[in-house]
Amino acid sequence: MQLTRRGALAGAAALTAAPTLRARAQAKPSVKVGVLTDLSGTYRDTTGPNSVTCTRQAITEFDAPSKGFNVELVQADHQNKPNVAVSIARQWFDQGVDAIVDVPTSSVALAVSQVAKEKDKILLDGSATTTDLTDSQCTPNTIVWSFDTYMLAQSNGGATVRAGGKSWYFVTADYVFGHVLEEQTAAVVKQAGGTVKGKVRYPFPDTTDFSSYLQQAQASGAQVLGLANAGADTINSIKQAHEFGLNQSMRIAPLLIFITDIHALGPDLAAGLNATTSFYWDFNDRTRAFTKRVLPKMDGKYPNQAHASNYAITLHYLKTVAAMGAANAKKSGRDTVARMKGIPTDDDAFGQGRIRADGRGEFPAYLWQVKKPAKPGGWDLFSLVTTTPPDKALHPLNPKCSFPVVSA
What we know:
It contains 15 helices and 15 strands. It is of the alpha/beta class. It has two domains: 30-146 and 283-359, Response regulator (Rossmann fold, 3-Layer(aba) Sandwich), CATH 3.40.50.2300; 150-277 and 366-391, Response regulator (Rossmann fold, 3-Layer(aba) Sandwich), CATH 3.40.50. Helix 5 packs parallel to helix 6. It is globular and about 65 Å long.
């Protein structure tokens, strides 16, 4: 057979193109996860860099390439400002980010949740706490993993009332998280026959001196100082309360406090405080195994419930992507969230559970007391007081938030 010049060129072109075509055919699809967190402010130590670390730990452990897809991770600091967070979220979603993880600060998370709904992407909330995310402002694109204000009010607030703390004064961060936590705890206090003698709301995130607010609380004659805040604000409030001797006349009730906060306070200031969490590193063999794996990457800190939530929620998302196929999972955030709800959860940080129709993860709430005396510098800090089952720890399901649940 005679080979023409045109045929030779065509054959050469085909040979040249063949490796490219094969490479394209063999390329794995990729999902993109963005950790949007507080890297510089009030919640840096309770979330921040170690939320990124625990999210990355989930990605590493899952080993997505062995299951047919790749995972990319990006991170950013939202500065506790909703407008900054919305700008980042829009940019990320437009650039191919499929799911945003963590998002501390409830006002920020609520804003990002609406962007995720608009873009049909996903918010995997590991640390924002307002129940509005799964109630009054719920969306089919958002999951709240393991704790919220209702759980804290029922467990920590309820335990304080039962222990004799009948009259309360609240010092509250003046934004949605503080407001909801204060209101829900006040409702628990009143339902138990207690009273609220007053409240004061301070500017967030611009307050470091709590002295005037604490003096008002002390002058109220209330038995309990209810701290409706978190992170560095909680630490500063407790330190300054001790400086004023307020702890001699009032029971201090931090309504959201993390093990990282307690470690920072030290045993002299933290001993005897109550804490409600859904994760504690030393709870069982599985929590200890998770902690052992992640600890070398945590810059000397042990994981708290927010860090663990970001690990677990990312792991469950990746399991769902694998079950659906990455290409299908990328098509619709709400469809992927619906499938996440239909797959039982199981991980070393939280054990077995599931996600309710409104996007709220169903796990027990554990009430702990900080050991006294605790070993200075150590992380063996909690003694278990009581366990609240999920049906008591979670707020009632709002019918308008009963979004689809898709089983395999």
